[in-house]
Amino acid sequence: MNRHLSLAFVVALAIAAAGCQRLGWSSSRPAPLPATPTPPVASEPLAPLPGTEQTGLPSDQQQPFGTEEQQVAAAPLEPPADAKEIGRSDLLGGWSIASGADNCKLFMTLTTWSGGYRANSRGCNSSDLQRISAWDLSGKQVVLKDESGATVAQLYSAGAEQFSGQTSGGQAISVYR
């Protein structure tokens, strides 16, 4: 009986060892896949965001920053003829901001804050956009404010899920999803 038990153990061990691929006894391993060639990466200039295009001058004749834009900042931003009514709930949540070379995030909530509701920006390089702490509605206009209540930017609806306007420094700004 002991001999049958030993024989059964040896047979079971042989079957287990034959089925184990980790020991390297199996020559039926699949060959590795060849590397997939990738095409070279192409680059081209990005198109401007809707509502932020420069008007009038070709790109090689545009005014440098800090000249005409500073004069525009003194005048209040007039609403476009096609500006739509905006509700507070239309503005809640996360948004992307594009202003000059800045592309960052804006988050708006309905938590009351001095001069409106709580807002904050993330990843902005511009000191103006970093100061955003609040937002409020004034008719058809969205006003972004700093913690003291001073206006950082004024925006109007520019289509579905997009607002365009200017910063208090006169630079074009677009907020979109």
UniProtKB/TrEMBL annotation:
Cellular component GO terms held in the UniProt record: cell outer membrane
Location of region: Disordered: 29-85
GO molecular function: endopeptidase inhibitor activity
Record domain Alkaline proteinase inhibitor/ Outer membrane lipoprotein Omp19: where: 87-177
SUPFAM superfamilies: beta-Barrel protease inhibitors
Glycoprotein is among the record's keywords: no
Biased composition (Polar residues): 52-70
Location in the cell: Cell outer membrane
Keywords: Cell outer membrane, Lipoprotein, Membrane, Palmitate, Signal
TM spans (from-to): none
UniProt topology in membrane: Lipid-anchor
Listed Pro residues bias regions: 31-42
Claim: Secreted is one of the keywords in the record: no
Pfam families: Inh
Family indicated by similarity: Belongs to the rhizobiaceae omp19 lipoprotein family.
Name of the protein described by the UniProt record: Protease inhibitor Inh/omp19 family protein
